Amino acid sequence: MTTGDFQRARSPEAKRVREVAILDAARRLGTERGIRQVTLTDIADAVGMHKSAMLRYFETREEIFLRLTAEGWRDWAPDLAERLRGLARPDADGVAAAFATSLAARGMFCDLLGQTPLNLERNVSVEKVREFKLTTGEGLGVIIPAVRAALPGLTEQDGVDLIAAATSMAGTFHQIATPGPEVAELYRSDPRMAHALVEVEPRLARILAAMLRGLVSERTAGTGRTA
To answer: Counting Cβ atoms within 10 Å, is residue 11 exposed (0-12), middle (13-18) or buried (19+)?
Structure first.
């Protein structure tokens, strides 16, 4: 599609179609290049729009990617809750593995999670931040009951802390695990750089399992129950 082919939306439905096209292009480019490498001009070119015309639909590049992050939460939360409800052995290790597996399978979502507090919430309106936080709150409402069903005794706040730790670390570990090509080659070529090589899923699972074992032990202390 050329820039001239993309006509201004004249109805709410047409506007929605345009927004979907913009989000799809941003998602595709973000998956291919990484979020940090995608500019508003790149997205505009991908959908055949002038950058100035795109501002009728989204105020900033960050708003586009914040919308995609919200979509990621709406996709991830029910999937994780279903994994937790289906655990054959719902213990600390199983819950941690479910978190790690579901997040590691969503590379772009992890990329977005890493960018959200640093950039995506910083160049949007307060109203857009409010909308985003309401979406994450809905995600907590889906995940926390499943966590507490798997690990009885954990509190609501334990669930909040667990999700905050999981999403924060997944975002950070994804950034570490996906350096530029030259840096990645350095890590692989020099044995002294072995500590810099990160596999997101196993590292996240280990850390979350340790956190959960500690929480379960603390909550069940004195009750006669075991983790």
So the answer is: exposed
The model scores a pTM over 0.85: yes
**pLDDT tens figures, 15-53:** 899 999 999 999 999 999 999 999 999 999 999 998 888
Nearest CA among 168, 154, 23, 36 for reference residue 99: 168
- 102 Cβ contact list (under 8 Å, min separation 6): 76, 79, 80, 83
Q: Is 112 helix (H, G, I), strand (E, B) or coil?
A: helix
Alpha-carbon distance of 54 to 213, in angstroms, equals 48
Strand ranges in 74-225 using DSSP code E only, listed in sequence order: none
Q: What is the CA radius of gyration of the chain?
A: 20
Query: How distant is the alpha carbon of residue 200 from its chain centre?
Result: 13
47 CB-side CA count, 13 A: 28
- Check: CB of residue 143 under 8 Å from CB of residue 77: yes
